[in-house]
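WARN no homologs supplied; continuing
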Amino acid sequence: DQDLSGSFRCFSLGFHCAPMADFDPTDYDGQNADDPLNEGEDELGKGPQDIVQLKDAVLFVIDCSTPNALKPLKVGGRCLVAEALSTAAGVLKTKVITAPDDKVGVLLYGVKEKQNPNNFDGIRLLHDLDRPSAQRIKELEQEASRTSKQMEERYGCGRPTPVSDVFWTSTTIFNLGANQAQFDSRIFLFTCNDAPAASADEAHAARTRVQDLMDMGVEIEFFPLQFEEKEFSIDRFWGGLLPVDPMDYVTRATLRLEQLERRIRMRIHRKRTLQRLTFYVCPGIEASVSVFVTLLEAKVPAPIYLLNENNKPLKAECKQICEQTGALLHPVDDIATYVEVAGHRIPVSRAEAMEAKHFGDPGLRLLGFKPSNLLKDHHRIFHAYFVYPNEKGVRGSAVFLSALISSLLERKLMAICSYVARKNSEPMMVALLPQAELEEEGEQLRPPGFVMIRLPWAEEIRSLSFPYPHGVRPVPDELKAAAAAVVNALRLDNFAPGCAENPKLQRHYAAIQALALQEEQPEETTDVLQPDAATLAKKKPIIEAWKEAVTKCAPKRAAEVAEGRAAKYPKREVPVPEGVEAMRALLHSGDAERLTVAVLKDWLKNQGVANTGKKQELLERVRSCV
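OK structure emitted
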């Protein structure tokens, strides 16, 4: 294997310019103490920079205009209204943890009462667009638990209502409660009626109102819920009204509904840049880049301490106090530091300590280029970062770095740079791997830029040697084939990093939710790390075949060898010491370690010494006595 050490080769790169596509930075709160790039501060003491992020505004629109809305969707199941209200309550439970500043509302149409900003008949705004709260969640859960008869008495379902009025009311609700500059608006539409328009004029009016919503940037998610005995036809009305895929739309809607019901409790952070830095290419050529983090460990949030009198957050304050006088000490004038060298205390002032930590101004400095295939998996000792041009910092950075990325990809090279994250941060050697843009059907799946890998120093690489155990026979081909069969049988073909949620975090947030909603027990959370018993049962013959192959080829077990040795070499008993000389002899031979605790306690008691404590403490007292 070639290593990254050695001299750097510089190449003359021919640039051709291409525009950089927009990039949406990954979530990052910039407060992780384990991140080595977050140890210092920049010159102004500022942390990561905020990126404008739209909040979510979701309006649940539930069709109650037909009597079928209160009929169970399947035998023993819930009706459409209860199903939609339960889904809305689940979304609120998710939002209250993941994004408490988002807004959720619930709108019923086809009911007897009218309560909406447009004062249209048959439309009731059950919950206005507002932030999630425990009270709103409880109200929706209570409504979802009602029987069909109770809902009929409460709402009076079955009143014909023009769909155009529903979309017009939705437009008004978003205009009043969700500013387009701050919120990304969506409608979740639940219905079991595939032909709600009574005339062509009504269908034309509905299309006009839907177009108004789309012009506002509102996205409409369509959830057609069908009965087991009746097929839902999208061609009769909804296919010409909403941008839905006519192929297998009911199945896809069911899958989306299951995704809504399966709530993944996690905390979503604001989108931020980790740093904005200067990229020094060579004397006289500089560019500006932004650094983003792409992967970061999610942890249980630290508790916030409150004053029990008024529940206001407490502020921690640390001060140094003189041990002799009790006076407060000034951190600069009254406190000195030192470094111990060869038994001597060498005074070091604060200014000297700060100067020793300074390795230059923050930035990326290009050192040279190396073939990208020299970067091995064992060189990646920390998670990667993403580097993207910052056009606001230096004009022309996007075009310059786009040309650099194209040239590096063409020549299969990577850039080696010196990286100083902040003013007082230690320097790092990093590799910049060029990443090309990846699009599919006009949607950007991967942005162009650089993946920044932190490289290890020479002191961090360990040279390990594992010689083949003496006397172990080579592994036979039969055992290798059995092991390969087990590996092939247990492959996770559809696995991708990030597809499973952390069971510890899920249980933590479920407990927090139970406390907030005053629930008797936390909700059951799914531990996706548990083995699939059904799959393992199917693969049992393959696993058993591997076990038999291992047993056939394995050497004798340690227990069997120990039994043979015990028979050949019987265990030698340690004599109980009578006096100090006998104990001294046992200590010199090392047999004192084999004495039992009871024997040690009796000997110490005879010597008039305390005989309490663990075995190591007793042995220390025995050594001090002899």
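Confidence is low (pLDDT under 50) at residues 1-34, 39-51.
OK
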